[in-house]
Amino acid sequence: MFIDPAIDMKPAPLRYSPFKALVVPRPIGWISTISAAGDINLAPFSFFNGVSDDPPCVMYCPNGTHRDGGPKDSLKNVQETGEFVFNLCNWDLREKMNRTAEHFPRDFDEMAAAGLDAAPCEMVAPPRVAAAPAAFECRYIQTVDLPASRAGRVAHMVIGEVIGIHIDESVIVDGIVDIGLLRPVARLGYTDYAVIDEGFTMARPD
Ligand SMILES: Cc1cc2nc3c(=O)[nH]c(=O)nc-3n(C[C@H](O)[C@H](O)[C@H](O)COP(=O)(O)O)c2cc1C
Q1: Which residues pair with 32 in a beta bridge?
Q2: 8 A C-beta contact, residue 33 and residue 82
Q3: How confident is the model over 173-188, as pLDDT tens digits?
Q4: CATH for 171
């Protein structure tokens, strides 16, 4: 079948848009930010990825609006204070990560509400999730405004440079990060997730 997204994202026999089920698996950017007033925010974003590695850069996409009608806190805060932290969500943290997706008022600390301890960062003001096996401290570069939906739903891509990396050394074996110990959680389509705990190796042809 062929889909023209401008006409209909879920023609029969589809019950839902297949888009997110086809861009899989998506890493989850569990993003902590802080407002100018010092309020901490933590929220998951599966429109997240590394986009460059020297210097390392990542992006996340706070799309749509907060329940209060304004921009999501993760967009407001990064534009106000210029910093964010990517926290890696592993298998053990999956349920706490999910809890931090709830829309709370801006001065509500989702990290504390989810029962997560905060750890200070070295280079940026937002705290990191202490239990996360890895975290990137990021300096905001820019927001790219993406096309809005026909219904007027806004979309934004926030890009930042990674200026500090934390890794729990217990996931490092023989000098490399061991995926079976890291156990990152990834987003699939619908309400599905995957946990990555094994990989395979393939050498490049040249
Ligand atoms: C696994 C997961 C992935 C999500 N990915 C996105 C995303 O890529 N973009 C987005 O705008 N919201 C995403 N959400 C919803 C946000 O986490 C939620 O709207 C959150 O409250 C962000 O709002 P805040 O920045 O105001 O805290 C996701 C939720 C979950 C559970």
Answers
A1: 42, 85
A2: no
A3: 999 999 999 999 999 9
A4: 2.30.110.10
DSSP 148: P
pTM value is 0.97
Residue 45 lies in a domain: yes
Separation CA 20–CA 169 (nearest Å): 33
* Ligand 1 atom, smallest distance to 74 CA: 25
Q: Which two tokens stand for residue 42?
A: 């933590």
Q: CA–CA separation, 83 vs 21, rounded Å?
A: 31
**Counted domains in the chain:** 1
- Taking only the tens place, the pLDDT of each residue in 72-124 is 999 999 999 999 999 999 999 999 999 999 988 888 888 999 999 999 999 99
Token pair listed for 131: 């239990």
Measured by CA distance, the residue closest to atom 16 of ligand 1 is: 101
CA distance 21 to 176: 30
Residues with CB under 6 A from ligand 1: 28, 41, 43-47, 61-64, 66, 72-74, 98, 101, 103, 187
Domain that holds residue 164: 21-195
Kind and range of the H or E run holding 73: helix 73-81
